[in-house]
């Protein structure tokens, strides 16, 4: 009655249900999010191991064009949008990334080649720390290269979208899209 004078609380009766609080908590945990983060891994021709793909420091023109297709390349320093766990104050996760706002949903891409490369670290833990904690990773290939989900060890990565660069007969850029999962889905 404090909120609305028209509501007659005398018509409401308490329902005693022992698991009500658990149901409310479970319902509350299913919040719809407007923020997403996806990994993006550049896989060069012939690379078949996690160590190889996470060690890439150079980007092909095709990969850069694909990143521009995904979103806007942004400077991380003082970035004001959804940061997806990336450092926007001290530069510890690199200087730039790829971000987009798609139909009101903010998406930050954890791009393997934009995350810090650590000389002497074959596992590239700085890179894997972010991409390995994403649920979905996009694997970009300049040409047909074998990819199997278990080449990347992760408890969180479950879905992979493999993008292969191709061209039309007129020279236009096209992408072949394949989906796969870790087997846990």
UniProtKB/TrEMBL annotation:
Pfam families: Rap-GAP_dimer (PF21022), Rap_GAP (PF02145)
One GO cellular component term noted in the UniProt record for this chain: cytoplasm
Domain Rap-GAP span(s) in chain numbering: 24-185
GO MF term (any one): GTPase activator activity
Keyword line: GTPase activation
GO BP term, pick one: regulation of small GTPase mediated signal transduction
Protein name (database record): RPGP1 protein
Annotated source species: Crypturellus undulatus
Gene: Rap1gap_2
């Amino acid at each position: 009655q404090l909120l609305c004078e028209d509501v007659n609380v005398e018509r409401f009766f308490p329902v005693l249900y022992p698991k009500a609080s658990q149901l409310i908590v479970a319902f509350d945990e299913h919040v719809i999010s407007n923020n997403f983060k996806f990994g993006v891994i550049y896989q060069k021709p012939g690379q078949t191991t996690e160590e190889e793909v996470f060690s890439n420091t150079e980007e092909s023109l095709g990969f850069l064009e694909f990143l521009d297709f995904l979103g806007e390349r942004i400077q991380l320093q003082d970035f004001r949008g959804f940061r997806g766990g990336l450092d926007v104050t001290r530069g510890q996760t690199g200087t730039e990334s790829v971000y987009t706002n798609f139909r009101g949903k903010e998406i930050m891409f954890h791009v393997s080649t934009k995350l810090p490369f650590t000389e002497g670290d074959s596992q590239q833990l700085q890179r894997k720390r972010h991409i390995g904690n994403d649920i979905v990773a996009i694997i970009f290939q300049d040409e047909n290269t074998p990819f199997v989900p278990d080449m990347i060890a992760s408890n969180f990565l479950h879905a992979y979208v493999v993008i292969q660069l191709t061209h039309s007969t007129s020279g236009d850029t096209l992408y072949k899209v394949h989906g796969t999962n870790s087997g846990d889905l």
